[in-house]
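Re-run with default settings, no changes from the original entry. Doing this only to confirm the output is reproducible before filing.
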Amino acid sequence: MTLKVICTEGVAIEEDLLNKLTDAFKLISKEEDLDNNASINVKIIKDKEMLNLNNHFRNKETSTNVLSFTNEDISKSITGNLGDIAINYDYIFEESNKQNKTFDDHMIHMLIHGIYHILGFDHDNDKVANVMEKKEVTLLKKLNISNPYN
């Protein structure tokens, strides 16, 4: 299991957060019974880059906190790469302050949220959203992070 995290220019995260993100990936890999060679790439980006991605891939002219891109390439079975996640550093920083959450906890939640999207979960309607949120809350609790939906 490999979580590759890179940061765009002008963004840096501390080693402690990187370790927490890796631990979260290991936990979700175990909980969801992912293959041992499973990997996900994460890029932590600035708001301008997220605006461009959201516009290009979702035709939305707004920013967002996280975007997931599932690997649907034939290489998936060979490389184990499940997909890519973009996390908006600026958005997470602002959102965590507004919601009285720690930056690290919110970043970990967004990683888990993004991974569940890659694994095929969504929140297009209440029924499927409840399933996804329940999985997220269960994992976050195991990481000593309180329910972000309360």
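The mean pLDDT is 94. Residues 105 and 145 are 6 Å apart (CA to CA).
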